[in-house]
Amino acid sequence: MHNRQQSISRRAATAVAAALVATGAALPLAAWAQGKEPVKVGLVSSKSGVFAQQGEEVMRAVKFAADEANAKGGVDGRKVEVAEADDEGTPDAGRRVAEKLARDGNNLLIGSIPSSISLAIAQNLDRWDAAYFVVASKSDKLTGDTCKPRSFRTNHSDAMDIAMINEWAKDLKESTFAVLAADYVWGRDSGESFKKAVEANGKKVPLSLYVPLGTKDFSPYIAQLKNSGVEAVWVAETGRDAIAFVKQAEEFGLIPKTKLIGHALIQNFMINATGKALEGTPGNTAYTATIDNPRNKAFVAAWKAKFNRVPTDNEGQAYNGMQVMFDGVKKAGSVKPADVAKALRGAQLDTVYGSVTMRAADNQLLLPNYVARAKTVDGAIVPVIEHVFPPSIIPAPSPACKM
User: Fold this and answer.
1) Over the chain, what is the mean pLDDT?
2) Model pTM?
């Protein structure tokens, strides 16, 4: 009888949760099943600085995932609460606000864009009694020599992208390339890895330019690119810097004569901000709404119902990170970061990318990868997938990662 009453109580709590969230009403804590501890999410991303536009998308998707979960009765009967803070696009600010969130009890952290901030957060997780879900940062160091048992990457790493590029580079028609990349850990990793990949296929990279973050005037770099005579430019820029470069590349005549190839270049926010400048440009894409599986279709339908548009790549990645966090809570039956981390290592997970594995050796989610081209679909320029590369091409974990 006691078990039957518990079951009825749980069903009632779920019904109350769905009804109240649907109407925008506040949910009394007593309504959540069994008085379980809530899932307290620390959302650390950029409201200001060079990554603000991407940060806005990530924050929107994290809060959407929380609202969606609460409308369905929570995660394992637990209410999801989100506290947010601005990392200002810098490691110092990111570390400071992440620590405050964690010490205030919001110790399931998620959301920063650049690898420099994610690296700063990951190093302190044990001290803060926190776990961290990387949804956008790509540096191999996060799953390499600075890997941490409580840090999980749910997006593609540089190594995963480069493994794809190594295959893709074999079919690139151009024989000479330049690199233009942001002068921080992700940009340098990307530029140096691309150079190595194409040179291994007998092609040449005579010019590599690394540009300080926050650069507004790209004309000196564009002049060098034009003078180099290369056929294509590998671009690994981000945020407002990337938008400024593309606009000026068009203004000063670098494109369309010289082809751009992008690492995170044909993101939705980039395409939307640069008119038709990127139409026809190929590059990797981290997520699209057209990924064909039931989990992603359900997400896209729910997103469209709320926002009257499909989710962007940043939004899809952030939503995916929240689902992995939620799966960790369910598998652990706990919101304690150590328990969640233990439950996720080596887990098989149903995600918007399909059924994938969280690799136990380095806490990297093993995802398929995609090359797309910016094309006009239904009147809008969007990334359209042209090639899918399976997780089987992903390189082995770095021996430098010691969990």
Assistant:
1) 89
2) 0.81
